[in-house]
Write a structure and sequence with these properties.
- The structure is a homodimer.
- Chain A has about 140 residues and is mainly alpha-helical.
- Chain A folds into two domains: about 5-70, Winged helix-like DNA-binding domain superfamily/Winged helix DNA-binding domain (Arc Repressor Mutant, subunit A, Orthogonal Bundle), CATH 1.10.10.10; about 75-125, no CATH class.
- Chain A is built from six helices and two strands.
- Chain A has helices at about 5-20, 25-35, 40-50, 75-85, 110-125, 130-135; strands spanning about 55, 65.
- A two-stranded antiparallel sheet of chain A has the order 1-2.
- The interface of A and B includes residues 7, 75 and 134 of A.
DNA sequence: AAGATACCCTACTGATTTGGTAGGATATTA
DNA sequence: TAATATCCTACCAAATCAGTAGGGTATCTT
């Protein structure tokens, strides 16, 4: 399951997508409208900024905004930043790979299955973007 | 990611599938061969028994064994028992559903995506069984 | 019946992760 | 230079995870 933090992140991003190209949005505005604890949201947005998803401006008229066009950022990328690995096993993870000390990866039934799950999942999450969070729809 | 516990469970089950219809297997045997902490494994096997996946026999000649034919138990069922929900959001979970207080589920981009991920994942995990874990696998 | 065998069961504990908060530092604008 | 708003580190409580302890209970052998 996605962590609370990850779900907050997606709610905030949904809001920012809706305000795309309308100038920076205050953290406090997002927190209020999306009912997210202010200081916690602050940390989340900062993390998304460091990862290159968001950009920010300080001082009056400042705030956060989406860096690239929303269609350029995949949902998979966001999940990895705020929630960690997408795969169900370390030994099938593309971005968080760890060698499996329990099995011969070339000959492990579970490994094969989880590779399949990973591919099926990524096929969706890599091809959906921030745009798909809003696109005509209302809120999360 | 699957918890340590879940990965232990799958390793133990793999062993039990290999020994299927060769009589009960000692916890201590599984623990030793699969390098799983004995007392922890004890709890895991007990949980799988209570959930109806395994059966056991006490006393000399006793041990654990798979209750039904391995092809009758899906990987999805095992994951739910030892690891919890398969879905990425409570509001798309079939077995651990919780109403989403953040969004209108009928009109939420993230909800739709995660429903897709759930279906793609279950399409694999519901149709693979304990048999697919075994070393000398039957062909699909 | 007695003893040995092997699972059954509850409770506990330490380490890690999760879900935040606190409080000030830094950059920008007016 | 005052106000604004993000930046940043550290901290904290609660929950979960990973595993242990210690005896209870059922079964088998002799």
């Amino acid at each position: 399951m996605l962590s609370n933090k990850a779900q907050y992140a997606f709610r905030a991003l949904t809001y920012l997508v809706d305000k795309y190209e309308q100038g920076p949005v205050l953290i406090s505005d997002i927190a209020k409208k999306k009912k997210i604890p202010l200081k916690f949201l602050e940390n989340i947005l900062l993390e998304l900024k460091r990862a290159g998803i968001l950009e920010s401006k300080k001082g009056k008229g400042g705030g956060y905004y989406i860096k690239q066009h929303p269609s350029k950022t995949s949902i998979a990328a966001v999940v990895r930043i705020v929630n960690g690995p997408i795969s169900m096993l370390p030994c099938v993870s593309l971005y968080f790979y760890e060698h499996c000390q329990n099995c011969d990866e070339k000959n492990c039934g579970l490994h094969d299955m989880m590779e399949g799950v990973r591919d099926a999942t990524l096929n969706i999450l890599e091809n959906r973007t921030l745009n798909d969070l809003a696109s005509g729809k209302e809120t999360l």
